[in-house]
Design goal:
about 250 residues, alpha+beta, 4-stranded mixed β-sheet, 18 strands
Amino acid sequence: MKQNRFKKGIITLVFLLSVSFFSVFASATDAYANTQVPKLNVKTKAIVKGKDYALKVYNLSETQTVTFTSLVPKVATVNEEGIVKALAVGTTTVTAVIEDSASDETLVLECKIRVGTPAFHIMLSRQQLDMTVGQRSLLSYMIAPFNTAELPKFSSSDPEVASVSAGGVVTAKSAGTAYIFAQIDNGLFSACSITVTEEEEEAIVPRTFNETEESEENTFADFLINLNSNFTNGDNTSEDTGAEPAQ
């Protein structure tokens, strides 16, 4: 009876310690989350002329407010919600000034903005690619003009065979054929045919040694000895076949 009570006491103690540990851990996690400083979603951004992009500030508290400004408004403007509008080719800096009414502290965040021209041509470096299941490969591309800020949009005709990331990384999923497309805003695109096959395992055949192989190895050894003897005796001429040596 005493032993059962002792076991129950140990179990209860372990349970209480576990609850206390997780409570402290949760409190520490909340405290850490509350101390995270505000930050922008990007520090640099390339935008195509005539396009918009939304800047966002994370980890804002209820007492903090944000004011956005653009250093060169003729290149890009920004409204009070952080929407950047690209107006002309060039560079500017968008500043986010964060003020805290509770502590009177001010934090300044910056994002470098580059405005470029739209793309008018796109070509993938490869038009055909063979892959095995599980393999990954990066599709590089050529885009014009050189100062464009546009990036192609990648897609797959059959993601179950081959999927593609936003950056052009192709992942072979299953055996079959799929087409990967890289398209720009004017509608032009380039395609690459992906053929995926199952990876074949090489069969390992056990090798046995027999008298025939022993005879063949002895014959080969005799051939090497005779060849060495011929070179030693100066008999290193060869039959003239009429073929000219490679230059």
